[in-house]
Records
---
Amino acid sequence: MTSRGTPSRFLRSVLQNGVGRYVCQLKRVSIIFSKKAQSSLGVRDFIEEGVVDYAKKNPGTVVYVSPQPCRVPKIVAEYLNGNTKEELVTNKTSQQVLEVLTKLTDQSGLDIIRIRKPFHTDSPSIQGKWHPFTNRPPSAGFIRPQNQHAE
């Protein structure tokens, strides 16, 4: 927390993700819906049409489809860091359900908070900042202003 009262942190990557190969942070997706409720119509359409395509595109993610007697259909996403997120998909179309799943797949599982600054290093330099004359040989001498009165 900062003095503003909002949580913030420095920009960071989850387990250096992207330095080597990319590892999707989404581990498991559970699609919970009702077989009969009208609010689950789009989810049922998505399960008939698109869930197999989604599973083929994301082989590292386990997809569970569980029909339960519930009024509110939802998607529960579990990430590698242990966090879970729930998204309600009440009265959404099949395309909107796919968009919600894609959004959950692209996230890292970390809470979305304000980034303090766009760069950060864990081991800052003790040599100071670089400038154009850092590596200039000392034999070159000092830089003097040119004489304005050329003869």
---
Amino acid sequence: MANAAAARRGSLSMMATVATPGAASVKRLTSPEEELLKNTDVFIFDCDGVIWRGDSLIDKVPSVLEKLRAMGKRMFFVTNNSTKSRKGYKSKFSSLGLDVQDEEIFSSSFAAAAYLEQKNFKATGKKVYVIGEVGIGEELDLIGVPHIGGPADKGKTIELTPGYALEIDHDVGAVVVGFDRHFNYHKIQYAQLAINENGAEFIATNMDAVTHLTDAQEWAGAGSMVGCIKGCTGKEPTLVGKPSPLMIDYIVYKYKIPKDKICMVGDRLDTDILFGKDNGLKTVLTLSGVTSEEKLLGAANKIHPDFFVSSIADFFP
């Protein structure tokens, strides 16, 4: 009977690991306590596609977070979405019935401000030109860095008449590009001139190709805006959101947490999982967002999480 039981365990183990042609094995999380929970002190969760889709909570998320807190696990919520500041995200968590503290939230709008603060940008007396929404400006206000553009440039147009030249503020020392629902040619040209003629630093909040603005479909992400500015300047941006190490370095430094006790949980291979792997963290991919099981297991995929789950509800089956 012991041999039969061992054979059954071996069979289950083989079923849990999925081999893909030309790629490393990818393992579905089947024993959360043994495989993940007992050796992890901190969980870093992406938000879009993991905690919510659009303005809708993903099933069983509140109970999972409650159970993790009851186990003494520390949690952080890291999002590449720059449309809101940490204050704005705190309001969203509260509106969805989730009790999350301000210091547990890290948005790419905050990462952009933290990067500029780290560089002592304020001391230069320069301004930031923003392509993005209110979140970036709110975070810049908190560190006392002046900024222009952003929502104020919504709807601005350019008339290409003979002899016309767009005038820009020559005190612009950085251009921060994030997701912008009101992206337009005025913003493109302003950023191009600031970077190419002023020598302003080009900073990207993230390079996400698509994002979850609603729960109905995927929408073009900030990567489309950043790509446009890359195209007209010929410059590569400084990336401050995932998979850049800036946010994880901040968390490790401030909270003195060893990286091998941290797990990154996300729905994107090229940002969340790459972010975790590049920074020495455990990684879990959830299929509740933009990545399908077919893409994860496909031979073309070269980014492999430690585990994958259907959603974080699988942490407590």
---
Amino acid sequence: MMSEETYEETMETSQSPRPAPKLNERILSTLSRRSVAAHPWHDLEIGNLTFSTALIVVEITKGSKVKYELDKKTGLIKVDRILYSSVVYPHNYGFIPRTLCEDNDPLDVLVLMQEPVLPGCFLRARAIGLMPMIDQGEMDDKIIAVCADDPEYKHFTDIKQLAPHRLSEIRRFFEDYKKNEHKEVAVNDFLPSEKAHEAIQYSMDLYAEYILHTLRR
């Protein structure tokens, strides 16, 4: 049995103030109003998407009717809207970091894989094709890619290897998903992986020019 003296010592020890846990760098930076949080558009290195794989940031989950998108100011994923049409995204959808298109957004990517991925995650992918698209009169091309770590899809290297019905589903989704908003979207013929690589390189160059211009200001 525990003696009275030992019991009192134990109680004193348990009631003594414990050392405060150290605040991590993210909390400290918030308190001091200095941001060190990584921005998914600017701080992730995409790798070499032409010859191997690259990082893709997922904004929208496969099977979702919620249109999530990157908030470019904070780097967080926000809810933009719920799709007006009775459709869901056929595959995980996101963007390539450190790219820029004429609409002032990073380059969009549809990633084919077996499972849905949570918004805000990033994964390794390989570009296999390009879907030229016109959204309300403006270019809004999409890269078609496959998850490099999915055993069912990682062997694909070009969009012509996909089943025609798979491409038909993708086309139909983008043709229909804005119809109830009375917005016109036109999808042209899918292009091979070489065109996807050219589009990625162009968007990377555009992003680099934007960064240089910003730094000079």
